[in-house]
Specification:
about 45% strand, mainly beta
């Protein structure tokens, strides 16, 4: 068991006594969207979704991060959709941070609970419903699947964090580890959604600079994150959105562990 805790306290509206100071920032290399921004006023209501709302925290943006959109979905009891995905090219990766729900896919019901992960291939028919007595909140990453001639489509995956191995990064004594929901050796997938965990005092000991775009949603704890030339303090509920080649590093000073949900695009040649 992971003893996992996932931040899910979104919504509401700050009081009139709230000051305007904030770490919200949008630059040419990265954006930080803090949890204080996730108020009722920035939600979207989506077609064919009942009793539901979405915080769309990133979307394909020309000249920035161009491969994916990431939502925080909140579905009330009795809510859901029989037509959740409007684009047949789009695949879905879902991670539940609170509550219970059901995805119907390929003739079967797949029960979801806090900590569940689902991957649904592009073009698949699926539905979502919340038959429980409480809201369900989950992250939904949408990405147009990049087809490769001669490579079969990837299969669906339904799993839970407790069923996945937390792999330590080499030479870190287990202080920095990654939970991978999709097999990193399977090139049929062109995206990953992982959980990265740092123990107190752990670091990324170099400035990562690479082709992958990232969405990083902090699930637990706090840290200081280096984004391009800036150090930014982040905590549970904050979101970091990184374009390709944005330099990045991390120092997780504690007192508890620091964990985030990480999107990245993988396993494909860049378009020329």
């Amino acid at each position: 068991m992971t003893n996992a805790r996932y931040f899910s306290d979104v919504g509401g509206l700050p009081p009139q006594t709230q000051t305007l100071s904030s770490k919200a920032v949008f630059t040419t290399a990265y954006a930080v969207i803090p949890k204080t921004v996730m108020s009722d006023i920035v939600t979207s209501v989506l077609p064919h979704w009942d009793n539901s709302r979405a915080w769309i925290i990133s979307r394909p943006l020309s000249g920035f991060a161009e491969t994916f959109a990431q939502y925080i979905m909140e579905v009330a009891p009795g809510g859901g959709s029989v037509r959740p995905e409007p684009d047949a090219r789009a695949q879905a990766a879902i991670f539940v941070v609170e509550g219970e729900g059901t995805i119907h896919y390929d003739g079967k019901d797949h029960a979801l609970r806090t900590g569940s992960f689902a991957y649904i291939p592009a073009g698949a028919k699926w539905t979502f419903r919340n038959d429980s007595a409480a809201p369900i909140r989950f992250h939904w990453v949408r990405k147009v699947f990049k087809v490769v001639d001669g490579l079969e489509l990837p299969p669906a995956v339904f799993t839970h964090e407790d069923e996945c191995v937390m792999d330590p990064m080499p030479d870190t004594d287990g202080k920095w580890a990654t939970t991978r929901f999709l097999d990193p050796k399977d090139v049929r997938y062109d995206m990953h959604l992982n959980i990265v965990t740092f123990q107190p005092g752990a670091i990324i000991p170099f400035m990562e600079t690479h082709i992958m775009e990232h969405g990083l949603y902090v699930l637990e704890g706090k840290a200081v994150y280096r984004l391009n030339s800036d150090w930014v303090e982040v905590e549970a509920g904050d979101y970091m959105w990184l374009r390709a080649y944005c330099p990045q590093a991390c120092y997780a000073g504690g007192p508890g562990r620091f964990r985030y949900l990480l999107y990245k695009d993988v396993n494909r040649h860049p378009d020329l």
